Amino acid sequence: MNPLSRFSINQMTVKQLALPELTEACVRLGVPAVGLWREPVAEYGLDATAKLVRDAGLSVTSLCRGGFLTATDEGDRARALEDNRAAIDEAATLGTDTLVMVSGGLPVGSRDLVAARERIADALSVLAPYAAERGVRLAIEPLHPMFASDRCVVSTLDQALDLAERFPADQVGVVVDTYHIWWDDRAPAAVARAGATGRIHSFQLADWTTPLPAGVLNGRGQLGDGAIDMREWRERVESAGWTGFIEVELFNDGLWARDGVEVLEETAGRFVDCAG
Amino acid sequence: MNPLSRFSINQMTVKQLALPELTEACVRLGVPAVGLWREPVAEYGLDATAKLVRDAGLSVTSLCRGGFLTATDEGDRARALEDNRAAIDEAATLGTDTLVMVSGGLPVGSRDLVAARERIADALSVLAPYAAERGVRLAIEPLHPMFASDRCVVSTLDQALDLAERFPADQVGVVVDTYHIWWDDRAPAAVARAGATGRIHSFQLADWTTPLPAGVLNGRGQLGDGAIDMREWRERVESAGWTGFIEVELFNDGLWARDGVEVLEETAGRFVDCAG
Question: Which GO terms describe its molecular function (chains A, B) (predicted)?
Fold first, then answer.
């Protein structure tokens, strides 16, 4: 069996590669799937990207990202919903059934996490049926608590499930990303909870390395370089019923500064060595 | 009533002040209490510091810090226990009943958080009775999950309580520090749990501001500058039974670059404005 048969490369990991370079390299290296991001897809063209990956025979495991649903201003909320509907349409066009949702942080001047989380639920009640009509599932990604104020007020897998479980499992689920939840002693039980209710919609790997860089966004470590036991997490998530692709999504200035194909080969190798 | 009657300034907040400058400014400004750190105390002299704060009529609300109990190497573990016994003795000499414990991160090359947490429990079983004989309580401080690999594998208040509750409440408790737990939707219940069992041994305030600096250690925000509702947290912790001093502990390069007395005055003012 191809040791990469479950491997999906998230486009951000090798963002220095243009889409044709990425798809060509995936085909040559036997990488069967990619996770895409809206901005580079829009840059290359939505339909052109859909054709490119389809012709290359690649699966699209997810589109990043929808979300940012915590605004209090009515105009901002309306624009956010419109942007999420567009993201859902784009996911459908790209042939992926999973839109990753990064819920959003606290509005400027607000200190009310509870109210922000409720606004996310309100928005999901509008977006989930729209997505379902287009064959797209919304995957709520809990982000590490260090992002709670400025990016995502959903900080644990249990919180994400508390939101998702208000909706049908085929409409709203969660992303299990090792980078965000590895530290949480309740995460293993939450993975089982997500699996039992069919809510695992995406599984992503990144390692935890320190020191964190300023702003902390681009410190996601290459598999094997950090504190997370990738094989243990793969076994945990698969024991919960996950049989889909496993995306490796790294934001890392060091990796972005290198040759993209070399980084893709290294990442595929690390996937086999650390999580194969 | 003096609006600062419950205020304690942690020495680290104004580390640019020598101990005599700090105590003099506290007396002049009506600040009744200080939290001390071992390194500057050792630098000024343990007995000299004890006399200085005693003569100034200041309460010492805590000593930072013991801990770092996760080593696997036997020699390292023995040295850590010895260092913690010394810290306990220093706390007793300084006249504080509370030693703050920062438990320690993962040993180099280890990815086993569960085992590391067990080694902390093993060490506490040795240190807690030693501390109790000297009238000192060990206060386990959960640190923000962004420190889980390199500083403290105890990341939530519930985890800290799971450890503390293995011991008598007058021997081992927890630190409630807003900076580390503000994001956690389970923290309010954990504060109630800690209060109900008499486990709140220290209450510290710092605000959450972004972007985080490289290394993330020195990004603790001045009260009122960030995402945390200080008054809500004070009410929450006092509702759980806390009647002691409230320490403000900020690690912040910007504050350290300014005049220390000015920062102390500002911090006292923010305490009154945001948590008074």
Answer: isomerase activity
Chain B contacts of A210, Cβ < 8 Å? 149-150
Domain membership flag for residue A2: no
Q: Do B127 and B66 touch, CB atoms closer than 8 A?
A: yes
The reply to whether residue B111 touches residue A150, judged by beta carbons under 8 angstroms, is no
- pLDDT tens, residue by residue, A201-228: 999 999 999 999 999 999 999 999 999 9
Spatial distance between the Cα atoms of A129 and A136, rounded to a whole number of angstroms:
9
Whether residue B143 lies inside any domain: the answer is yes
Q: What is the CATH number of the domain that holds A14?
A: 3.20.20.150
Q: Interface pTM (ipTM) of the complex?
A: 0.96
Look at residue B265 and tell me if it is in a domain: yes
- Find chain B residues with C-beta within 8 A of A216's C-beta: 146, 211-212, 216
Residues of A in contact with B253 (CB under 8 A): none
> Sign of dihedral through CA atoms B225, B5, B174, B102?
positive
pTM greater than the 0.95 cutoff: yes
* Residue A153 contacts residue A69 (beta carbons within 8 Å): no
The residue segments making up the domain with residue B190 are 7-275
> Measured between alpha carbons, how far is residue B261 from residues B24, B201, B270 in Å?
10, 28, 14
Cα gap A270→A222, rounded to integer Å: 8
Q: How many domains does chain B have?
A: 1
CA–CA gap between residue B44 and residue B138 (Å, rounded) = 24
3-class DSSP state for residue A139?
Answer: strand
